[in-house]
Amino acid sequence: MRTSIFAVLLGAAMTCAIPAPAAPAIHVMLLDGESGGPYHAWQETTPYLKRMLEDAGMFQVDVVTAPPRDGDFSAFKPDWSKYQVVVANYDAPDERWPDSLKASFEQYIRNGGGLVSVHAADNAFAKWKEYNLMIGVGGWRGRNQESGPHFYYQDGKLVPDTAPGNAGSHGARQPFKVVNQVTNHPITRGLPKEWMHVADELYANLRGPGENMTVLSTAWSDPANRGTGHEEPMLMVISFGKGRIFHTTMGHDLAALNCVGFIATYQRGTEWAATGKVTQKVPADFPTADKTSTRAAYNPPAGWTSPGGAPRRGAK
Predict the structure, then answer these.
(1) Cβ atoms of 221 and 214 closer than 8 Å
(2) What is the largest distance, in Å, between two alpha-carbon atoms of the chain?
(3) Which terminus of the chain, N or C, has fewer Cβ atoms within 10 Å?
């Protein structure tokens, strides 16, 4: 009898000692290959975006580079089904993708694929109706009032302003405060209500259909810096069919990517777009309402200057 009890206890102890199997990696396609100008240097930012996800310890990332503007797209047929989420570090005009490629991407998202739109990815495909439904709002490339309202936050509500005007603007790059308007979403849950982002382009005047869109976070577009005088959307989530989309307007260059606020919300947003939940803890070094936070591991390389602009503070 004693032997049987001992065997049972030993077996239970051994079972408890066996570590739980690790969750399978989330498969990510990081799509790049073009931008609207040299100021959006995807060749620089893609490796940083890839490393941020890999550093989270839960993502397996493949970089897929589309052909250049004068390239052959007839053989570019990504297997979207291999991935739970596509991170778009990509900005191309409407005519770049053939209809068949657009249709395959639409089907992937409608059927439950995830999408993360980073910064200038919301400039892309201005006349592609379904893409604009995916990202909610976008700017430049000819967008205007016909693309949809200019959405901004006022008195705790999202305002769709239908006044005529072109879509897309920003002032000089400088630090700004991000305000989480929705604090109970998995991406923003546990984050400070307000936090400082490092110097970046504060996108404003974005226009689009805004359907099935929730604006999680905003920032004040200061008229003293060519701003609108409104709380402009910074972080958004959108649904398209069964698909989940996380849209961040931040992340213009390497210096902007170095913000812990950007890193954490990008990592959390990618997990949410892929799975519908966020298991990552809020990092201890997350910025506060009055102080930015960066990580030395993501400092721009020595001698770096922001593409298309003057040398940046913090470029080492």
Answers:
(1) no
(2) 86
(3) N
